[in-house]
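Sequence design from tokenized structure. All designs in this work follow the same two-part layout: the structure record, then the generated sequence. An example of the structure record is given first.
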């Protein structure tokens, strides 16, 4: 039967209140020809009969005048009312009227009860997660609130709240279309309805999704979780799950035995995260995903490297070698921050899959936008506009997910056209503690995951001590991402068995929690006992699985003592094959001339001063700017904006993708760039002339960003990480605004090569000029970048044939303050022509953008390599 929805009527105070609180579809009916009988009883609160009476009386006169679902409903109600009468029907008119009144009263009560049941179902869907059994320790409420909704406390309370009686428990009720608990059945007893709702919403899975404003998406989630019998696993799937839990737990046990005094930020208490990640990857691979990019904090990273990415164990174990010196290449960061890139066969789907775990520092969520940028770039280069081949997975800690603002910034990039990665699966390792800080002191929201609600991402809370519930949720999360191309959050409610790290003493600050943790049976033993009891595996098989993995670890430990295996190439998350070598030999330390022919300059200039689309009406002020550009081309000169245009355009001709992003970069903060033209008469019709230079050119992407520096700079850094054959630039609205992205600059850009041997060609454009506009709008703080340069002021490099290029190679980044447009042109081109990649920091002008003397001749841009005229490297004066 179709879902009912009545406008508030004479259904009584309780029913009217429920209808006002819960949203249910309306079916209208055709008007009738006469009024309702005066004898129809009024509601107990004195309200009029109105709509319900109208529909019922219309049906009495003509069953075809109402919707067929109401016809069926009223027929059934009348039959029940008639069969329930103990007295024979009287023949007098008076008794007949009383019988009609009695029948109508019973019908009205039946309708009220149906509406109450629908409201009860909806209450479970909306608030059931508040009473779900999510904490494996059984001592905390995952939502920081011990309050239980009054309509979900006990069966008796529920019945009273909805004006139902215990006698109603065994009555059959029609199920609405907004639930799937009936399976193939259309009606269920109230007792069975409550039982099924409890099993779906109040056990080890808590679902938050009813805030999503898309009916189709809500129905999809309901079907996945409410349909009876959906959470069933075959014996083979259970055995695989057990084997993955064995690997997860025994890896941590092995490290604890071999290096008992080393920090490793192990996964004890959330060992289920390993099979959870593998399940998401398996399901995604099955649906066509070929490349998965992961970002995560330090907890469990070594386990993920070993058992998800499948990095050779000896490569992990050798990182514990005490003889590893800090001066060794790539040893600038600890082992649980390192990244990895690996291509392998997925044994479940027998498809090749590439896995990349992005290296990151202890700044926890700082890696989020970096992963998204790298994912976007991989999708772009593969032509994967829908994200069907490349996806990202982000693992978070509960305290960081709620506390770090970059999480919010990253979420708000998720649906922007130039930043979307078509959905990310977020896994929150919910330790229910942040180092030593109780969650009640660490966040104001009920759950650590509430930030995800801003983008309508469904949130699946799950008890991490129920491996099968976790696996089911992860399967659904992967399907959601593939189906709707939207973010989804899996909240693994777990605990930390050993505290913040292996050297910590958590009893100082959380004594009661850790008394319970010390008594807690590990998830592996609980699940193994369950499978042994049901006959899925035998005790001998379980012990053999443990012995097999222990043997693998011991053999790898023996091989880890071979110093030859210690090489940084095994720890690159973006290896750039073929870039550093030509025909197997290292590239020459030379830089080709950065000038280009005058024909190319003229062609780019002519496009930059025109509108390539016919019938495209531009602003009159912009017409003057384009005419000014045309005049400069005739005079063989360029200003700052035109020099940039020519540098970009010439690289596009050579097949180099150029991407420029930041706040207001399309027009330019100072109204000088105008790379995107807007039709003045057709809304949202735009033109990017740079994409009309040559038929076979590389694409140019220019995009205004959200009002974010931290998140967007991290995104562009990740984008530049994916390929060396792209010029990726981020421009601050004003130079000093980079201070809110300082974490990305400090932790990734200035130190990335020292820590992870990560080359990156990201370009930062920082408007700079002491022109009286206040500290935030004047200085881009060049002193900060110079202080973070790795130059030794007491050591002068030896002069060689390739002195300048070699000197740049030894820098952690290149810092320039150009004085002419030609310098700017050559510096941008050199960034791509160099045989290596270094971050480039450019202090761009403001007043010089239009200064009549700040122009360069074509002669300075044709075949002249203007490198030495630019102040470069850490010796910027």
């Amino acid at each position: 039967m179709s879902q009912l929805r009545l406008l508030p009527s004479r259904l009584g105070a309780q029913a009217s209140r429920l209808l006002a609180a819960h949203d249910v579809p309306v079916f209208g009916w055709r008007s009738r020809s006469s009024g309702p009988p005066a004898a129809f009883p009024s509601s107990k609160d004195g309200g009029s009969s109105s709509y319900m009476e109208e529909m019922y009386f219309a049906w009495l006169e003509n069953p075809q005048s109402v919707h067929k679902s109401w016809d069926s409903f009223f027929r059934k109600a009348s039959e029940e009312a008639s069969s329930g009468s103990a007295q024979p029907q009287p023949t007098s008119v008076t008794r007949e009227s009383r019988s009609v009144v009695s029948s109508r009263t019973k019908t009205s009560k039946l309708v009220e009860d149906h509406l109450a049941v629908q409201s009860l179902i909806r209450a479970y869907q909306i608030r059931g997660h508040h009473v779900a059994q999510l904490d494996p320790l059984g001592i905390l409420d995952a939502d920081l609130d011990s309050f239980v909704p009054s309509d979900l406390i006990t069966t008796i309370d529920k019945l009273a709240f909805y004006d139902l009686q215990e006698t109603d428990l065994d009555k059959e009720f029609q199920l609405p279309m907004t639930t799937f608990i009936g399976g193939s059945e259309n009606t269920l007893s109230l007792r069975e309805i409550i039982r099924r709702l409890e099993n779906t919403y109040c056990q080890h899975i808590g679902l938050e999704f009813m805030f999503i404003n898309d009916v189709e998406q809500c129905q999809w989630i309901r079907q996945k979780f409410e349909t009876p019998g959906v959470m069933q696993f075959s014996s083979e799937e259970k055995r695989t799950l057990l084997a993955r839990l064995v690997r997860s737990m025994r890896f941590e046990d092995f490290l604890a035995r071999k290096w008992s005094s080393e920090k490793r930020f192990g996964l004890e208490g959330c060992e289920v995260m390993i099979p959870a990640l593998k399940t998401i990857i398996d399901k995604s691979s099955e649906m066509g995903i070929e490349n998965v990019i992961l970002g995560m904090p330090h907890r469990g990273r070594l386990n993920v490297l070993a058992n998800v990415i499948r990095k050779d164990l000896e490569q992990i174990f050798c990182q514990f070698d005490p003889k590893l010196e800090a001066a060794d290449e790539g040893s600038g960061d600890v082992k649980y921050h390192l990244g990895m890139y690996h291509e392998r066969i997925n044994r479940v789907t027998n498809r090749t899959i590439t896995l990349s775990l992005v290296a990151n520092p202890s700044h926890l969520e700082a890696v989020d936008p970096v992963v998204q940028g790298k994912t976007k770039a991989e999708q772009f280069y593969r032509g994967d506009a829908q994200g069907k081949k490349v996806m990202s997975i982000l693992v978070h800690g509960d305290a960081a997910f709620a506390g770090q603002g970059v999480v919010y910034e990253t979420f708000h990039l998720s649906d922007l056209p130039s930043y979307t990665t078509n959905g990310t699966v977020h896994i929150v390792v919910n330790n229910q503690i942040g180092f030593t800080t109780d969650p009640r002191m660490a966040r104001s929201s009920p759950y650590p995951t509430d930030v995800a609600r801003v983008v309508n991402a469904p949130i699946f809370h799950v008890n991490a001590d129920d491996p099968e519930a976790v696996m089911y949720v992860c399967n659904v999360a992967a399907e959601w991402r593939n189906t709707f191309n939207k973010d989804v959050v899996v909240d693994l409610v777990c605990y930390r068995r050993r505290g913040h790290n292996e050297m910590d003493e958590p009893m100082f600050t959380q004594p009661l929690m850790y008394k319970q943790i010390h008594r807690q049976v590990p998830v592996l033993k609980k699940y193994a006992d369950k499978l042994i009891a049901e006959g899925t595996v035998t005790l001998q098989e379980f012990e053999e699985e443990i012995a097999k993995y222990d043997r693998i670890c011991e053999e790898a430990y023996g091989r880890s003592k071979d110093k030859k295996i210690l090489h940084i190439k095994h720890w690159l998350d973006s290896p750039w094959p073929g870039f550093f070598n030509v025909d197997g030999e290292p590239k020459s330390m030379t830089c080709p001339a950065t000038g280009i022919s005058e024909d190319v300059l003229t062609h780019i200039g002519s496009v930059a001063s025109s509108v390539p689309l016919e019938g495209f009406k531009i602003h009159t002020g912009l017409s003057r700017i384009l005419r000014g550009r045309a005049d400069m081309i005739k005079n063989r000169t360029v200003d700052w904006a035109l020099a940039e245009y020519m540098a970009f355009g010439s690289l596009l001709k050579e097949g180099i993708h150029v991407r420029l992003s930041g706040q207001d970069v399309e027009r330019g903060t100072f109204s000088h760039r105008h790379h995107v033209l807007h039709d003045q008469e057709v809304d949202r019709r735009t033109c990017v002339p740079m994409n009309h230079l040559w038929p076979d050119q590389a694409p140019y992407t220019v995009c205004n960003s959200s009002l974010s520096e931290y998140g967007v700079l991290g995104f562009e850094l990740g984008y530049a990480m994916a390929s060396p054959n792209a010029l990726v630039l981020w421009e601050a609205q004003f130079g000093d605004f980079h201070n809110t992205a300082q974490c990305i600059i400090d932790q990734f850009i200035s130190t990335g090569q020292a820590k992870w041997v990560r080359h990156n060609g990201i370009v930062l454009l920082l408007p700079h000029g002491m022109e009286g506009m206040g500290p935030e709008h004047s200085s881009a703080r060049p002193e900060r970048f110079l202080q973070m340069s790795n130059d030794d002021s007491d050591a002068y490099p030896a002069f060689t044939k390739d002195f300048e290029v070699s000197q740049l190679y030894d820098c952690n980044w290149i810092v320039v303050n150009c004085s002419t447009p030609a310098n700017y042109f050559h510096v941008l081109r050199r960034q791509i022509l160099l045989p290596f990649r270094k971050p480039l920091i450019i202090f761009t002008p403001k007043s010089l953008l239009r200064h009549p003397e700040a122009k360069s001749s074509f002669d300075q841009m044709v075949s002249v390599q203007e490198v030495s005229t630019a102040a470069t490297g850490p010796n910027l004066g």
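The chain has three domains: 13-204, 235-571, 598-875. We note this feature because it recurs in several other targets discussed in the main text.
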